Amino acid sequence: MGNEELILKLKEVFPEMDCVQGNDWPELSFGSDRLIDVITYLKQTPELAFDYLFCETCVDWKTHFNMVYHLDSTRYRHNVVLKVKTDREKPEIASLAHVYRTAEQHEREIFDLFGIVFLGHPNLKRIMLTEEWVGYPLRKDYEDPINIIKL
Amino acid sequence: MDVKVTPPSAPFPGSVQEIPGGGIVLSTLDDVINWARSNSLWPLVFGTSCCAIEMMSAASAKYDFSRFGFEVARATPRQADVIIIAGTIVNKMAPVLKRLFDQMPDPKYVIAMGACATSGGPFFYNTYSVVKGADHVIPVDVYVAGCPPRPEALLHALITLQEKIKSGLTRDQIRTQFAENGK
Amino acid sequence: MFEEVATSKEGEQIINVGPQHPATHGVLHLIITLNGETIVNLEPNLGYIHRSIEKMCESLSYRQFIYTTSRMDYLAAHINNHACALTVEKAMQIEIPERAEVIRILVSELTRIASHELWWGAMAMDLGALSPFFYAFREREVITDIMEETCGARLTMNYMVPGGVMADIHPNFVKRVKDFIIQFKSRIDEYDQLVTGNIIFQNRMKNVGILSKEDAISYGTTGPTARGSGVSCDIRKIYPYSIYGKLQFDEVLETAGDSFARYLVRVKEMKQSISIIEQLIDNIPEGDFQAKTKAVLKLPKGEFYQRVETPRGELGVYIVSEGGTTPYRIKFRSPGFSNLSALNHMIKGHKIGDLVAVMGTLDLVIPDIDR
């Protein structure tokens, strides 16, 4: 499915969501409560078949977090980007570890570096830093006067 | 007291007293022990990042550090004499490095290979997890510059370490002599 | 810390492999639950070389941040640099000269061979065969010498810059690459004689660490790890970047999904890389090696993603720009990170002695995983 076709299809199914053409792929933005609905639809609809989550990351926009999911379909070779807005005070979002197994490790990394809590994750604990580490270093307001030497 | 710098190819330290039918080698026991020690340094296989590949190159046929007695690379610190810190040390790794060093039998030597192990190198600024130099964790005998250093640079570091061992001097003695003689 | 044994459940014990262990090729820590000799569970503990590259890049300019990626996956420094350069070029819409494109592909494919060589030697060494290590380094040194002449470094080259390559190729480059091809073609058969056909080797590799096609996709594995399970995932083929679309080469696929299949994919990929180099080495176009770019690069506001194929799989560079001279956020989607997540699934139920045979064929580079 080409990008235009994909946007039309997504607009038809999720009319309340914002779907635009990004630099490479269609980008669908929505709130964190709809994540599981959207993912289930994208993965299980036979003509979409987004079965491969190739990148999962997070961006700190100071007012909120944006979870970014890059999906690919190994059957049709079309891609879509999901941007999910998450509250900064209480960063919680559903885990995709049961849908895409690769998400398990990616989500542990995001929890470690951004402090986003993934609900329903089987083994949510720090992966890169030690358990005693305080704070989430990739957040924009992270300060560490001992370790970080600023240039 | 002079620093006795013996080239790596130097024969057994001491002087030969000619007597009819051969000769007697006269030497001090310290010199003999240091000579033996310096020519059979067993390195610990310890590589955290890029420098480890250059260390492997130094072990391979083209550079071949076994020519100088380093070929018996050990996987366990309990059998190693020298630890080559090949790569960045991060905060999570620092206690492990300390423990590895503690597990090595005396006498033990440390080579900091590359910019990261020397000072944090490219990862000095704006990083939250890098130890800015392995000498914050364990004492280092020889530093090698480069990112990563060439295998020749590592060989030079190993020869320098041999010279240090053969001289039998401590770090402070070397420093004093360096200040006095300028060499 | 290294081989501590602690008893947990009845009959089960926990063994730590690493962070200082020769078979982990770096500082990977695996917490393995054993029942007798059978692996019940395996949990990787990362971060022993987590150098906070992503945080660091947020304060580096678009010319500077490329050098950190050479140190990420140091066995494929050119390809990492290529990914970053492509992302910046895509964002700024820089057209790069054809000569630069060809040089980029040539050095990338040489790196791919060098990386596979090192994997081949190191993996055979893990399995107890010492001589392949020396064979592999014999050829690898030729490539590092070629690289040194042209790029000025043996390992972390930083040769690719936004707009092209840093410097023109050395006058000896073409001749030496041609010599290398002739030499390498005869030697790759030696590899097959030495290792591939070895019955002990085959017995250790076959039917070990089987990864099905569905699992390979679900775990997000890429590169030879996934292609050994029959998943077509070569970014050079499916989303061609640079001039890969114009070149003739095959995507190597195996269907068995075991360690031996992954081994075969990598050995055959070396031959494919040779064929790519052969197509280009006589046809390096004349012209500039770098496009004219501004001294200070400013990316437009937006988000840019580029996928490339490294020897280990798919590398993604995701840049979020606010329009300034430094990125707002950079994410490197490293191939090893996802490939490693499949290890627990592949190794469960096998004996602990098989761990090395499975882990060796994943070709893990730990700084690439931890970043």
Write the layout of secondary structure elements.
The complex is a heterotrimer of chains A (151), B (183) and C (371).
Chain A: H1 3-13, E1 18-21, E2 26-31, H2 35-44, E3 52-60, E4 64-72, E5 79-87, E6 92-94, H3 102-114, E7 117-119
Chain B: E1 15-19, E2 22-26, H1 29-38, E3 43-44, H2 51-59, E4 82-86, H3 94-103, E5 109-113, H4 114-119, E6 142-144, H5 151-167, H6 171-181
Parallel strand pairs in B: 3-4, 4-5, 5-6
Antiparallel strand pairs in B: 1-2
Chain C: E1 5-7, E2 12-17, E3 29-35, E4 38-45, H1 53-57, H2 65-70, H3 77-92, H4 98-126, H5 131-151, E5 160-161, E6 164-165, H6 173-196, H7 199-205, H8 213-218, H9 223-227, H10 235-238, H11 259-281, E7 302-310, E8 313-321, E9 329-333, H12 335-341, H13 343-347, H14 355-362, H15 366-370
Antiparallel strand pairs in C: 1-2, 2-3, 3-4, 5-6, 7-8, 8-9
Helix pairs in contact in C: 3-4, 4-5, 4-11, 4-14, 5-6, 6-11, 11-14
List keywords for this structure.
heterotrimer; A: 151 residues; alpha/beta; Beta Polymerase, domain 2; two-stranded parallel ribbon; 7 strands; elongated; C: 371 residues; alpha+beta; Cytochrome-c3 Hydrogenase, chain B; four-stranded antiparallel sheet; three-stranded antiparallel sheet; 46% helix; globular; disordered N terminus
Written description of the protein model:
The complex is a heterotrimer of chains A (151), B (183) and C (371). Chain A is of the alpha/beta class and 151 residues long. Chain A has a domain at 3-90: NADH:ubiquinone oxidoreductase Nqo5 subunit (Beta Polymerase, domain 2, 2-Layer Sandwich). Chain A has three helices and seven strands; from the N terminus they run αββαββββαβ. In chain A, the strands form two sheets. In chain A, strands 1-2-5-4-3 form a five-stranded mixed sheet, covered by helices on one side. A two-stranded parallel ribbon of chain A has the order 6-7. The longest helix of chain A has 13 residues, at 102-114. The model of chain A has no long low-confidence stretch (mean pLDDT 86). Chain B is of the alpha/beta class and 183 residues long. Chain B has a domain at 42-165: Rossmann fold. Chain B has helices at 29-38, 51-59, 94-103, 114-119, 151-167, 171-181, and strands at residues 15-19, 22-26, 43-44, 82-86, 109-113, 142-144. Chain B has a four-stranded parallel sheet. Chain B has a two-stranded antiparallel sheet with strand order 1-2. The radius of gyration of chain B is 18 Å and the shape is elongated. The two termini of chain C are 23 Å apart. The radius of gyration of chain C is 21 Å and the shape is globular. In chain C, strand 1 (5-7) and strand 2 form a beta hairpin. Chain C folds into two domains: 1-48, no CATH class; 50-370, Orthogonal Bundle (Cytochrome-c3 Hydrogenase, chain B). Chain C has helices at residues 53-57, 65-70, 77-92, 98-126, 131-151, 173-196, 199-205, 213-218, 223-227, 235-238, 259-281, 335-341, 343-347, 355-362, 366-370; strands at 5-7, 12-17, 29-35, 38-45, 160-161, 164-165, 302-310, 313-321, 329-333. Chain C is α+β, with helices and mostly antiparallel strands. Chain C is 46% helix and 14% strand. In chain C, helix 5 (131-151) packs antiparallel against helix 6, helix 6 runs antiparallel to helix 11 and helix 11 (259-281) packs parallel to helix 14. The chains are: A alpha/beta (151), B alpha/beta (183), C alpha+beta (371). Chain A binds chain C through residues 22-25, 51-55, 57, 59-60, 68, 70, 74, 77, 81, 100-102, 104-106, 109, 113, 123, 126-130, 137-138, 150-151, and chain C through 43, 45-47, 50, 52, 54-55, 59, 90-91, 215, 217-222, 231-233, 238-239, 302-305, 307, 314, 316, 318, 320, 328-329, 331, 333, 337-338, 340-342, 345, 370.
